[in-house]
Amino acid sequence: MDIQSAKASFFLATTKASACRNFYEGVLGLDLVEEDDFAVVYQLAGAELRISKVPQFTPQPFTVLDWQVEDILAMRAHLVSKGVEPLVFDGMGQDENRIWTVPGTNIRILWFKDPDENVLSVSQRA
């Protein structure tokens, strides 16, 4: 048995399924695979994103999902044009575009939240 080659699913939670769909489809441009009484489902590059419908939850204070992009500045511009507000974390030393460079690396990260306050990000290895 080889679990490494098995398809993976990622789970988030939503208490606002309609706002969730508007964000993931209208803002991020994901294609809906299905929606039922339990989840909203999207297909990512080789993985499934299941956003579980829950009556309540507490969002985590850290990144729960990241997309690795080729051009973080272009992606930032796209997200901002769709109404996304990039996050600023005190003490992180983010630049004027609210992008953080991981010390000692060429990895750059831009954080933002979905309607349920899940912390998402896009990152680029320059």
The oligomerization state is single chain
In CATH terms, what is the fold-level topology?
2,3-Dihydroxybiphenyl 1,2-Dioxygenase, domain 1
Average pLDDT rating? 95
Residues in β-strands, percent: 35-45%
* Number of helices, where a helix is a run of at least 4 consecutive DSSP H or I residues: 2
Q: How far from one another are the termini? A: 36 Å
Helix proportion of residues, in percent? Answer: 10-25%
Rg is 15 Å
* Domain unit count: 1
InterPro entries: Glyas_Bleomycin-R_OHBP_Dase, Glyas_Fos-R_dOase_dom, VOC_core
Pfam families: Glyoxalase
Domain VOC: 6-125
Protein name: Glyoxalase
Layout: helices, strands, pairs:
Elements: E1 8-14, H1 17-27, E2 32-35, E3 39-44, E4 47-53, E5 63-68, H2 72-81, E6 99-101, E7 107-113, E8 119-125
Parallel strand pairs: 1-4, 5-8
Antiparallel strand pairs: 2-3, 3-4, 6-7, 7-8
Descriptive account of the structure:
By secondary structure, this protein is an alpha/beta fold. The chain has a single domain (3-125), classed as 2,3-Dihydroxybiphenyl 1,2-Dioxygenase, domain 1, CATH 3.10.180. It has helices at 17-27, 72-81; strands spanning 8-14, 32-35, 39-44, 47-53, 63-68, 99-101, 107-113, 119-125. The strands form two sheets. Strands 1-4-3-2 form a four-stranded mixed sheet, with helices on one face. A four-stranded mixed sheet has the order 5-8-7-6, covered by helices on one side. The longest helix is centred in the N-terminal third of the chain and has 11 residues, at 17-27. It starts with 7 loop residues before the first strand and ends with a strand. The model has no long low-confidence stretch (mean pLDDT 95).
